[in-house]
Amino acid sequence: MDKAKKQEVITTFEQKKGDTGSPEVQVALLTQRITELTVHAAAHKHDFATKRGLLRLVVQRRRLLLYLSKKDADRYNKLIRTLGLRK
């Protein structure tokens, strides 16, 4: 992911200026990275290291979403609706 795209994602989901640590920003960045790796994994079926890394990112995103759903259900629902995630 290039810097411009990453910065665009951050500014879209930040809670306040310069926010990179909120769950919304982290989940959005992970979702972007997961999307890119999914395309790569589909094209390179025998790249098992990428598949392992992809699974790790999916688990990390799931943990953050679980945390956010317990902490603030409204923010969680808004985030999954915005990103188009299931649940």
Describe this structure in words.
- The protein is mostly helical.
- The chain has one domain: S15/NS1, RNA-binding (Helix Hairpins).
- It has four helices and no strands.
Keywords:
mainly alpha; Helix Hairpins; about 90 residues; globular
Q: What's the topology here?
A:
Blueprint: H1 3-13, H2 23-43, H3 48-71, H4 73-83
The average pLDDT score comes to: 94
Indicate the radius of gyration in whole angstroms: 14 Å
Provide the CATH top-level class.
Answer: Mainly Alpha
| Largest sheet report | none
H/E order of the elements?
Answer: HHHH
Helix content: over 70%
Structural class: mainly alpha
Strand content: under 5%
The overall strand count is 0
Low-confidence stretches: none
The number of helical segments is 4
What overall form do the CA principal axes indicate? Answer: globular
CATH superfamily: S15/NS1, RNA-binding
At the fold tier of CATH, the topology name is Helix Hairpins
CATH architectural grouping: Orthogonal Bundle
Q: What's the number of domains?
A: 1
Distance between the termini: 26 Å
Question: Briefly, what is this?
Answer:
By secondary structure, the chain is an all-alpha fold. The protein is built from 4 helices and no strands.
